[in-house]
Amino acid sequence: EIRAQRKGRLGGSGIFRAHTTHRKGEAKYRALDFSERHGYVKGVVKQIIHDSGRGAPLAVVQFRHPYKYSTVSQNFIAAEGMYSGQFIYCGKKAQLKVGNVLPLGSMPEGTIVCNMENRVGDRGTIARCSGNYATIVSHNPETQQTRLRLPSGAKKVVADECRATIGVTAGGGRIDKPVLKAARSYYKYKAKRNRWPIVRGEAMNPVEHPHGGGNHQHVGHATTVRRDAPPGAKVGLVAARRTGRHRGGVDIKPSMETL
To answer: Widest CA span of the chain, in angstroms?
Structure first.
């Protein structure tokens, strides 16, 4: 049984589960309600905290309870420039300021946003990594949709009512610092999950991996593998259209979707 099979086994060994003991809870927006859809609500950033296993810091934002005399705290993904004591406004009529949460349809083209919703009310799923952001490319008033450029460079169309935070996700530049030694990788993944170190299949025995064995470390056959290969054989370059280095510019013909 190869590593990929053990990772995918439901209800089996728990050694590949995420390490969630020290995490601070889900980072998501308020549940979408009437006040956000038609006006705005005011919250205050109580503190900026570190979340174990996450590159970006979290902002603990406190709101008034909508129905009774109490407060409700929510963990937001912090935008670059947010600070404790800052007032955060969430809703359609909120101002265009860093840290505020607005629907995409209320923002002008060219706005830099982070922690964007993919579907209305999913409370934030896109551009949440440290230093990541998406850019609003255009609005389509007829279909009530907004076109964005994602951190990967891909374009995506979502509904105007999807919310996003104005600004860039905090904690940028994290990967600019070289790792330098194995211990840093060890502690990095200790907080996340069991996925380091990764042993090459080539270095294993033939009983443990399709690439294992041989008197020298070599695969001995093509590393491409078909999409419908059985689980124990599905390793390497799965359903590869091409292999090797990408040399020179890749010419992509613009489709009607990207224009």
So the answer is: 74
